[in-house]
Amino acid sequence: MNDRRGSFLRGFLRMAYLLSALCLASLASAQSTPTLASSLAPQVTATLDPTRVAPGETAQLRITVLVPTFMPRPVAFPSLDQPNLRVQLPERATMPVSRRVDGRTWAGISRRYTLTPLAAGAFSLGEGALEITFQDPETGETVTRTQALTAQTLTAAVPDAAAGLSPYIAGTSLTLEQQLTVIRAGEPPAAEAPATTDESLVPSGEAPVSLAIGDSLEREIKISLEGGSALLLPSLAETTPMSTMAVHAASPVLAETPTGGTRTARLTYIAQHGGSATLPEITVRWFDLGNRRIAAASMPGVVIAIDGAPVSSGGASRFQRQYVTLGIAILLFGAMVAVGWRWLWPIWQRTRQRRRRQLERRGITALTYLERQVRARRFSESLIAWQALQRRVPGLPDERRQTISRCLATLGRERYATDKTSAPSDTAWRDLQQALPRVADLRQTRREPLLPTLNPRAPGW
Fold this sequence. Notes:
By secondary structure, the chain is an alpha+beta fold. 33% of the residues lie in helices and 33% in strands. Strands 12, 13, 15, 16, 17 and 18 form a six-stranded antiparallel sheet that branches. Strand 5 and strand 6 form a beta hairpin. Helix 4 packs antiparallel against helix 5. The longest helix has 45 residues. The radius of gyration is 51 Å and the shape is flat. The protein starts with a helix and ends in a 14-residue tail after the last helix.
């Protein structure tokens, strides 16, 4: 009996142990599934070198994307463009990469950006997200995930040794060059000969360049920079007005190279008057990155001697004469307006009043008002206007007077009839409008006497 109880107890303990082992295995499997899934997520890294530069210097930002299988579509990288920061993709900027991760080979892609700050400040990078499409190694399906970039900050600061340098230009080498070309304006010896000849000069800064009136001098200024950004190079095309020459500047030409670049300005000076002129000396201050100090590059000025009549004092004040003429014209116009307001305006007002009284006396004003009311088909106003016209011009012909009175009576009956069977007749209004007197009738009425002759002569007297 005891043996039977002992075997039953041992079997019960074995079953409880097996059940507990199964529960622990299920719990471990449930906890390990997310870890496995997260370990197969794409890996994105971003490195910035260096993190602090001077304006004009470059930094490299490298973004690397790795997936456990492969990517059927390219990675959608975010845009890094922002003000005062130049973002470039150099040659072979995007390259495939592969690495060993947890004993497995992961494939991916690496992209390198060249960043050049154009002004001092802090530039935040990596605020966007990447869209990565790859094949899930467990299900074999193509999935797309969005992965955020690690934030990077690029700081651009002017070195203490270059404080106060404006504009800020930095590099390892900066040179200035100029080329002078004289274009002579002369009569050609034959019809097929050119009218101008070019003559290239090497500026020496000692002997002046001789020109005649009509000749032109082309000055080409080229500034070259190494070890920096050519975008920071200033414009040297200054068109300061000159009394003896006209100055014209062409658009500057910027050419960039992997290590720097050049900026070329071209100015044309045209001789217009005899005398002398001096093209200014040009000096550019820049920061030498190699020696960590401010350096300067200079280019000598050019003295020009022009043969011909000198500029007259009147020609120098041509703009002043124009302004004086304009001022005199404004003063004369103001005086005319003042005289007109003081004298002509009262005369015009008196003339208008005299004209208005004449029209009223001749009855033209009353006739105009009557015609306007009849055209608008206002019965009461038309009746009042007709009575006013009769008072003003009592000598209207009886036939016209009777016709107008008859039309007004017809319109009155139709308007104030008790039965209201019909609207006012359009025919009555048209007859009334046709019966109205004309301005010529008013004039004829004023010439005819209002009363017959008191003592008519007998026939034969």
